[in-house]
Design a protein that fits this description.
The chain is α+β, with helices and mostly antiparallel strands. It contains 19 helices and 9 strands.
Amino acid sequence: MEQYQFVQEAKSAVAAFEERKSYKSQTELKNYRNNVKTIIEYRVSMPYTEFTMLKNQSNISDEQILHYIEKLELLKERYTDRWEMHFKEQSVDISNVKDYVQHLNSGSVKNGTEEYSNLVDEMKGNGYIFVDDGEGMISFTVDYDRISETFSKKLSEELKLFLDIQKNKRFKVDAELVISREELETRLIQLESIIIKYPNFSNINELKILFQDLMKTYLTGTENSQITTNQTRVKEEIITGFEQFISENNNTTSSQIVDAFLSKLKGSNFQLTKELENQVESLIPSKLKMIPNGLSINLLPLTNQMLETYEEYKRANNENVFDGPFAGTNTIDLVVARIYMYAVVTGDYDVAYDLIYKGGKGADIPDKSQFISEISSTDFQTLSNEVTMVEFQYQENGEIIKHIYIKGDGETVSLELRLENGYPKIVYKSTP
C-alpha cells in the first residue's frame, strides 16, 4: 500500500515537516503540524473513511473531492482481479444480468460464498457501483451519483459538471451506442465548454480523452452502430444530422470540427473510408485533445495477482508464469515491466537482472554488479507517482515493444522491451 501515489504524498509531507528546523512562532509550528496531520489522515485512510471525514467537514474544496476520486481510481485495479475471479464463479447462475446488477447495488444479493459477499460489500462501501458491461459481464466504476448527491451544496459549478459528465461517461457497450446521437451531441458541447472554460482543471486530460472518443464515435460511428449503408456511403439522416449540428452550434469548436469532416466527406462522395476515419484526430485542435494519448495505468503497486506471479517467477525463474491471462487491461509486456520496476524499488536486484534482455540484436548487458550500481539510483517510485497513461508501440511483428509512459503534465518517458524465447524482457539501455 505504501507504493500508492496518495500514500507517497503523505510521506512527502512528513519528510518536509521533519526537514524544517525553524519557525517564526509556536503558532506557526502548530499550524504546520496540524496541516501535515490532516494530509496523513486523508491520504492514508481507505476511501470509506475519507468519505465520512469529508461529509463531516463544514466546507470542502474541489481539490479534496478530486483527491478522493483519484484514490478510488487508483484502487480500482486492486479490486479488479479479485472481482473477476469471484464473479466468474457466480456468473454461471445468473440468468438476467441487468436485474443482478440492481441486486448487487441494492445489497439484496444473497447467493455466493461469504468471501464473495464480503467483497461486494467492501467495494460498495468504498464508493464503487456495479454496471452491466455487456455480453454477460459485470464491472464496477466510481459511484459518481453518491458523490454528487452527498456534496452537491459544497461543490463548484465546474466540479458539478465534471461529476455529471463522469457518471454519464459510458456511451457504448459492445461497440454499440447506448445513447442517442442527440445525447452524443449534447455531451460534446458540454465537454467542450468545460475544457475551454477551465483549461487548468486538474482532471482536464481525462475530459480531453473522453471528448476525442465522443467526437470520433459521432463522426464515424462504431462497429455495431454504423453510420453507413452496405456500400459504405454515409446515411442521409446522418448527413442531415451533421448539418443541423453545425447550424445549431455554429459558435463552437465542435461544430467547426464536424464542418471540416463533412467537407472531407463531400470530397469523397460521402464514402466513409479508413483514410477519412484516421483523419478525425487531426481535425481536433490541441486545446481539446490530449497528446499523446494512451491507456490509463498504475505502475506501482502490483496487484495481488501480479505479486503471486512475481513470487512464482522468483522461486522458479520460469517465464511461463507470464502466460497470464491477467486481470483488467494488463498485457504480458506491461506485467513484466511492472514486476521489473517493483523488483528495483524493493531492492530485489536478482529478479530485476533476470528480467533484462540478454540475447541477440540490441542487447546491452552490464554485469550484475554494474547493473546494481546503475539501477539502484533509478527512481521508479517517483515515475509511478507521475505516470497516468501508457501508449504501446509494437514493431517487427511484436519482437520489439515500446512503452511510452505519459505523465499527468503530458511529458513522456519510454521503455523498450524485446522478445527473448517468446517472452518480453527489458532492454536495459532504454530504462527511464
